[in-house]
């Protein structure tokens, strides 16, 4: 049998925000004459890799004077024998244009699923506020000066956002299937243990016999409205269709459309508006030849965030969830609501699955979500 030619396939993704967002869990920041080392937990593996740097929302060019990649040993420490430079068109330095992105050259470093990569960037000039992910659930490390080649970064400042990095691709066998988890904080992992890789996607990957899922969840993201990041319908082409190797997409949206208007004293959209948005997502996925799995919206009654839980929102969630289950618009359904709801109060998360804010599941809740996926529909 002839071996299949390897091709570039997404092994890690991180959905990003503008530093000028008005609603985020924590703000972005800038860097100057500093090294930033960030940890990326790979969902898949291959015989070589490349790294994607992003300045998507930066209003000035981003100069990266040196960059390296290695396997993480522990904390911010790397395994020196795996350390390799990142180059861009053969050059050690790269300028990422304002509002642009760049992809590194191939790095001949074989990696496996579950590997923690450390990507180190030396940023010599004032970067301005960084394009970032606000809830990556992983610690990054910042030190003064050019320290990209150091195995250990003593006295590093720890940060809990991710900056300027949006993905890693690997050379994997042609035909390797990849699903994109495209959604909000329930996919990104809010509520699960920081640094433990117990997000829904991590736990689902542990169940898959082949192929893998990359995470394009974005906490606070809405289906229909630009507010915390571009709305799902606006970022679908970039964050799903442009992912190399994508064959499937799982979606979880709607909670922020129902809850965030209450923060401003506004009424949430009606069920017909949300179902039209989901129908459009499914149409675009099918047009691109993808299998799409629609998730019901998780429960959030009694959440600690003022104005988010309203009678109107609860009622609309029930109607839309019934539609997701029965409409046939999606190829399959992931019944998140049923997996984590309190049987005695279906609008609320079951207490042992609740992170404590009554809006996000904890590690056990993420596992319940992952266990609810019918692997026959993923066919990865």
UniProtKB/TrEMBL annotation:
It holds the Pfam family Lipase_GDSL_2. Residues 181-368 form the SGNH hydrolase-type esterase domain. It comes from the Bacteria. The keyword Hydrolase applies. Keywords: Hydrolase. GO terms for molecular function: hydrolase activity. The keyword Hydrolase applies. This is SGNH hydrolase. It comes from Microbispora corallina. The lineage of its organism: Bacteria, Bacillati, Actinomycetota, Actinomycetes, Streptosporangiales.
